[in-house]
Write a structure and sequence with these properties.
The protein has about 240 residues and is an alpha/beta fold. Helices cover about 40% and strands about 15% of the residues. It has a seven-stranded parallel β-sheet with strand order 3-2-1-4-5-6-7, sandwiched between helices. It is built from six helices and seven strands.
């Protein structure tokens, strides 16, 4: 139980990948703070599963597209909890070209995908006491390191998060390590858009398995504390093509 006695905050952890990460952390002995925006039933289901594994869990809601909501959440969660690990997973993913992107789309992607992780990381850094150690993991996308013209506001926001990962690795050292996981094809899009031909051209032509994402997270949470500023591509080599 390598995470025994540690409390992990995972944003967007009521559903999909975030939920899988929360369950994996609980199986490794960690206690969870489950964040969601508008998935209370899914969050409660995730909480009950974690409790069933013998770990503690609490649910907190916040809309990260709203700065006031993000700020209240950030202050509340770090004022009332000793947090050891922050996993910035919450994200919005819209298939918009630059021509289709409205200013509201732009602002919403930046608020959720970049501003919220920044504010949470900043407050996390200030919350550590003495020589307390911490870790931050940012969930990225292969597009962040190979930006193109598709998924325009999403790609730009994730590219910013990749830069934030490296910058904070320096700024928060030595007590906090900051690393990222750049995902490729893991789950079909939640908006039911076409997912055909996504994997056919990959060097490893298959969907990633959720357990592979979980194992990568656990490695960064329990592995060497001398690793910081790294972004691991879990994308079947997609960033190489």
């Amino acid at each position: 139980m390598p995470l025994n006695g540690k409390t992990i905050l995972i944003t967007g952890s009521a559903r999909r990948i975030g939920r899988s990460l929360a369950i994996a952390v609980a199986k490794a002995g960690g206690d969870l703070i489950i964040h969601h925006n508008n998935s209370p039933e899914a969050a409660e289901k995730t909480k009950q599963e974690i409790l069933g594994l013998g770990q503690k869990a609490q649910i907190l809601q916040a809309d990260f597209s709203n700065l006031d909501s993000t700020s209240r959440f950030t202050e509340n969660v770090f004022s009332h909890n000793r947090i050891d690990v922050l996993v910035n997973n919450a994200s919005i993913f819209s298939d918009l070209s630059w021509a289709e992107t409205r200013i509201d789309d732009w602002n919403k992607h930046l608020a959720i995908n970049l501003t919220a992780p920044f504010l949470l990381s900043q407050r996390f850094g200030r919350s550590l006491i003495g020589d307390q150690k911490g870790r931050i993991i940012n969930l990225l996308d292969w597009r962040a390191l190979r930006p193109g013209s598709d998924h325009f506001p999403y790609t730009i926001s994730k590219a910013g998060l990749a830069a934030l990962t490296k910058s904070l690795a320096i700024a928060l050292a030595p007590n906090i390590t900051v690393n990222g996981i750049a995902l490729g094809a893991v789950l079909p899009p939640s908006d039911s858009s076409s997912s055909e031909n996504i994997i056919s051209a990959l060097p490893i032509p298959r969907w990633a398995e959720l357990i592979e994402v979980e194992e990568t997270l656990l490695y960064l949470l329990t592995g060497p504390s001398y690793i910081t500023g790294e972004i691991i591509h879990l994308d079947g080599g997609r960033h190489l093509t």
